[in-house]
Design goal:
With about 140 residues, the chain is an alpha+beta fold. It has 2 helices and 5 strands. A 5-stranded antiparallel beta sheet has the order 1-3-4-5-2.
Length: about 140
Protein backbone atom coordinates (compact mmCIF):
# COMPACT_ATOMS: atom_id res chain seq x y z
CA UNK A 1 0.00 0.00 0.00
CA UNK A 2 1.42 3.39 -0.92
CA UNK A 3 0.39 6.89 -0.01
CA UNK A 4 -0.93 9.27 -2.64
CA UNK A 5 2.57 10.60 -3.34
CA UNK A 6 3.77 7.03 -4.04
CA UNK A 7 5.75 6.73 -0.81
CA UNK A 8 5.21 3.88 1.58
CA UNK A 9 3.09 5.00 4.55
CA UNK A 10 5.02 5.29 7.83
CA UNK A 11 5.02 2.30 10.15
CA UNK A 12 5.11 2.66 13.92
CA UNK A 13 5.53 0.11 16.69
CA UNK A 14 4.84 1.00 20.32
CA UNK A 15 6.97 -0.26 23.21
CA UNK A 16 7.57 0.56 26.84
CA UNK A 17 10.95 1.07 28.53
CA UNK A 18 11.62 -1.66 31.11
CA UNK A 19 14.36 -2.01 33.76
CA UNK A 20 16.31 -4.31 31.44
CA UNK A 21 16.55 -1.44 28.90
CA UNK A 22 18.11 1.02 31.33
CA UNK A 23 21.34 1.75 33.13
CA UNK A 24 21.59 2.12 36.92
CA UNK A 25 20.07 5.60 36.72
CA UNK A 26 16.92 4.49 34.90
CA UNK A 27 18.02 6.03 31.59
CA UNK A 28 17.82 3.89 28.45
CA UNK A 29 21.23 2.35 27.81
CA UNK A 30 22.54 3.19 24.34
CA UNK A 31 22.58 -0.43 23.08
CA UNK A 32 18.88 -0.78 23.91
CA UNK A 33 18.03 1.60 21.08
CA UNK A 34 19.44 -0.95 18.62
CA UNK A 35 16.96 -3.52 19.95
CA UNK A 36 14.07 -1.05 19.65
CA UNK A 37 15.02 -0.27 16.03
CA UNK A 38 15.47 -3.98 15.22
CA UNK A 39 12.12 -4.91 16.71
CA UNK A 40 10.35 -2.18 14.73
CA UNK A 41 11.82 -3.50 11.47
CA UNK A 42 10.71 -7.02 12.45
CA UNK A 43 7.21 -5.75 13.19
CA UNK A 44 7.25 -3.84 9.87
CA UNK A 45 7.78 -7.20 8.15
CA UNK A 46 5.11 -8.85 10.28
CA UNK A 47 2.63 -6.08 9.37
CA UNK A 48 3.29 -7.01 5.73
CA UNK A 49 2.39 -10.64 6.55
CA UNK A 50 5.99 -11.83 6.56
CA UNK A 51 7.40 -13.94 9.38
CA UNK A 52 11.21 -14.01 9.37
CA UNK A 53 11.46 -17.70 10.25
CA UNK A 54 9.06 -18.61 7.45
CA UNK A 55 10.93 -16.26 5.08
CA UNK A 56 14.14 -18.17 5.80
CA UNK A 57 12.45 -21.55 5.45
CA UNK A 58 10.40 -20.73 2.33
CA UNK A 59 12.71 -18.34 0.47
CA UNK A 60 16.10 -19.25 1.93
CA UNK A 61 16.96 -15.63 2.75
CA UNK A 62 17.84 -13.60 5.82
CA UNK A 63 18.29 -9.90 6.45
CA UNK A 64 21.46 -8.71 8.12
CA UNK A 65 22.37 -5.19 9.20
CA UNK A 66 25.04 -3.84 6.86
CA UNK A 67 25.51 -0.46 8.53
CA UNK A 68 23.77 1.91 10.90
CA UNK A 69 24.01 5.54 11.93
CA UNK A 70 22.25 6.60 15.13
CA UNK A 71 21.73 10.14 16.39
CA UNK A 72 20.69 10.37 20.04
CA UNK A 73 18.57 13.49 20.62
CA UNK A 74 17.07 13.09 24.12
CA UNK A 75 17.12 10.49 26.87
CA UNK A 76 14.34 7.95 27.25
CA UNK A 77 13.70 6.76 30.78
CA UNK A 78 12.20 3.88 32.69
CA UNK A 79 8.47 3.42 31.96
CA UNK A 80 8.44 5.81 28.99
CA UNK A 81 6.08 4.72 26.24
CA UNK A 82 7.89 4.96 22.89
CA UNK A 83 6.78 4.91 19.28
CA UNK A 84 9.46 3.46 17.02
CA UNK A 85 9.05 4.26 13.35
CA UNK A 86 10.41 2.41 10.33
CA UNK A 87 10.17 3.53 6.71
CA UNK A 88 11.96 2.20 3.64
CA UNK A 89 13.89 5.20 2.37
CA UNK A 90 15.48 3.38 -0.57
CA UNK A 91 16.10 -0.09 -1.86
CA UNK A 92 18.18 -1.92 -4.39
CA UNK A 93 18.08 -5.48 -5.63
CA UNK A 94 19.65 -6.95 -2.48
CA UNK A 95 19.41 -4.22 0.17
CA UNK A 96 17.04 -1.78 1.84
CA UNK A 97 17.76 1.49 3.60
CA UNK A 98 15.44 2.31 6.48
CA UNK A 99 14.87 5.71 8.04
CA UNK A 100 13.88 5.13 11.64
CA UNK A 101 13.01 7.28 14.62
CA UNK A 102 11.92 6.95 18.22
CA UNK A 103 9.57 9.46 19.80
CA UNK A 104 8.13 9.55 23.30
CA UNK A 105 4.44 8.72 22.84
CA UNK A 106 3.00 11.10 25.41
CA UNK A 107 4.60 14.31 24.12
CA UNK A 108 6.07 13.48 20.69
CA UNK A 109 9.61 14.42 21.71
CA UNK A 110 12.20 12.96 19.31
CA UNK A 111 14.48 10.61 21.24
CA UNK A 112 16.66 9.09 18.51
CA UNK A 113 16.97 8.71 14.74
CA UNK A 114 18.69 6.00 12.74
CA UNK A 115 19.60 5.26 9.16
CA UNK A 116 19.88 1.49 8.78
CA UNK A 117 20.92 -0.47 5.72
CA UNK A 118 20.02 -4.14 5.69
CA UNK A 119 21.29 -6.67 3.17
CA UNK A 120 19.31 -9.63 1.93
CA UNK A 121 21.54 -12.72 2.01
CA UNK A 122 21.24 -16.36 1.05
CA UNK A 123 20.71 -18.14 4.39
CA UNK A 124 22.99 -21.06 3.52
CA UNK A 125 25.91 -19.17 1.98
CA UNK A 126 25.60 -15.66 3.50
CA UNK A 127 26.12 -13.99 0.13
CA UNK A 128 23.91 -11.17 -1.18
CA UNK A 129 20.78 -12.26 -3.00
CA UNK A 130 17.72 -10.53 -4.44
CA UNK A 131 14.98 -9.40 -2.09
CA UNK A 132 11.93 -11.67 -2.50
CA UNK A 133 9.16 -10.11 -4.58
CA UNK A 134 6.67 -10.63 -1.71
CA UNK A 135 8.38 -7.83 0.22
CA UNK A 136 8.25 -5.26 -2.54
CA UNK A 137 4.56 -4.46 -3.16
CA UNK A 138 3.81 -0.98 -1.91
CA UNK A 139 7.44 0.08 -1.75
CA UNK A 140 8.20 2.66 -4.43
CA UNK A 141 10.74 1.55 -7.04
CA UNK A 142 14.30 2.84 -6.56
Amino acid sequence: MTSQDGAEPPFSWRTRVYWEDTDAGGVVYHASYLRFFERARTEWLRARGIDQLRLREDSGVLFVVRDMRIAFRRAARLDDLLDVGARVAAWRAASMAFAQHIVRADDGVLIAEADVRVACVDAARFVPTAIPEALLPGIPAP
